[in-house]
Amino acid sequence: MLCAFLFLGILLRRTDCFSVTVPSSPVSVVRGAMALLSCEFEPDHNISNLVITWQLQESPQVVHSFYYGKDQLDRQSSHYFNRTSLNYKELAKGNASLSIANMGLKDAGNYLCIVTNGKGTDRGVVQLVYAAFYSEPRLSILLKSTNVTVQYEMEGYPRPEVMWLGSAGQNLTDHLEVSSASDGGLYYLKSSYVTQSPAINVTFTLKNPAVHQDLQRHVNLSYDGNMSSSTSVVVLSIMCIFLLFSTGLLLWLYCRDKRR
Ligand SMILES: *[C@@H]1O[C@H](CO)[C@@H](O)[C@H](O)[C@H]1NC(C)=O
Ligand SMILES: *[C@@H]1O[C@H](CO)[C@@H](O)[C@H](O)[C@H]1NC(C)=O
Ligand SMILES: *[C@@H]1O[C@H](CO)[C@@H](O)[C@H](O)[C@H]1NC(C)=O
Ligand SMILES: *[C@@H]1O[C@H](CO)[C@@H](O)[C@H](O)[C@H]1NC(C)=O
Ligand SMILES: *[C@@H]1O[C@H](CO)[C@@H](O)[C@H](O)[C@H]1NC(C)=O
Ligand SMILES: *[C@@H]1O[C@H](CO)[C@@H](O)[C@H](O)[C@H]1NC(C)=O
Ligand SMILES: *[C@@H]1O[C@H](CO)[C@@H](O)[C@H](O)[C@H]1NC(C)=O
User: Fold this and answer.
1) Could you state, in order of their start, the residue ranges of all structural domains in the chain?
2) Given the CA of residue 95, which atom of ligand 3 is nearest to it?
3) Cβ(201) to ligand 7 under 6 A?
């Protein structure tokens, strides 16, 4: 539509259809990594006419700006201080992609790329999504009277899909606790499964689609009632022999001292 108008405009003025190209799908970046926000435009032979402004869509905060042939960071938001950079060699090729180092939860949002040069002006929006891989789940097994609790703890982002499966692959009821993301930008997750059965054969699954993470951990706990009782018998016998022997030794030492 805009282009059609501009095409008409060509008859009156020599204006080309200038447009900015940004990724159409959200850009997912993991915690601590470098985010690359792509933004391309049709270059102009003269770079001194180029004005690039990266800012947040929701607020007027300046993320990065470039004009008069160099970075202009006086009005940059302190949140982005020393973390952003443009590739100067790429600017002449029509590439205004911005790198943001050390991605954190607060960096998630919609970023506007506004480009102006001798050929025109346009803007595009890049959606930046924050994610973090879930850490290796830490297993604990708690015994309380007749209950056995199998529990996994881990940290990551965002909220994952968690399931406990039985030996036949059936969905088991579980208990999930998620504490809100701290300044560190990670959720703390505690998932548990309670059973009265002493033999456990379950699978814990976690899916974090934002980073295509798919975890599966098997817990296989079995005990043999006969073995545990025979073990006790052996332990008891050893203890009796030891007791008899030490008593004998003490008596002998005592008698020897008495005789002196
Ligand atoms: C580039 O543009 C600036 C300002 O518009 C002008 O002063 C300069 O002469 C131009 N340079 C070239 C090589 O066209
Ligand atoms: C900016 O970052 C560089 C490394 O990326 C570091 O060496 C420098 O000390 C930082 N400057 C400030 C003022 O934090
Ligand atoms: C644009 O610049 C970035 C950063 O230097 C680079 O990674 C990317 O490949 C460039 N894009 C194109 C299309 O060349
Ligand atoms: C054992 O688990 C059941 C649910 O499975 C629960 O109602 C009960 O309170 C638990 N008992 C103890 C002692 O934790
Ligand atoms: C334990 O569960 C797995 C599937 O998770 C199954 O293949 C296996 O046969 C089960 N073992 C027993 C002893 O039930
Ligand atoms: C498993 O059960 C939970 C509730 O206990 C439910 O929310 C979930 O959708 C079920 N998943 C599947 C694959 O059946
Ligand atoms: C779990 O343990 C039982 C008994 O030791 C064994 O037969 C079974 O194959 C194990 N299952 C898995 C999934 O390891």
Assistant:
1) 18-130, 138-221
2) 1
3) yes
- Which pLDDT score, from 0 to 100, does residue 250 have? 63
Give the ligand with the smallest distance to the CA of 193: 4
Could you identify the atom of ligand 7 that is nearest to the CA of residue 218?
Answer: 13
| Cut 0.85: pTM above it | no
Q: Hey, what CATH topology would domain 138-221 get? A: Immunoglobulin-like (2.60.40)
Cβ–ligand 1 contact at 46 (below 6 Å)? yes
How would you write 177-193 as a 3-class SS string? Answer: EEECCCCCCCEEEEEEE
Share of the chain above pLDDT 90, in %: 66
**Which amino acid would we find at residue 229?**
S
Domain spanning 18-130: which CATH class is it, in words? mainly beta
Closest by Cα among 66, 148, 64, 74 to 107: 64
Q: How far is the CA of 41 from the centre of ligand 3 (A)?
A: 12
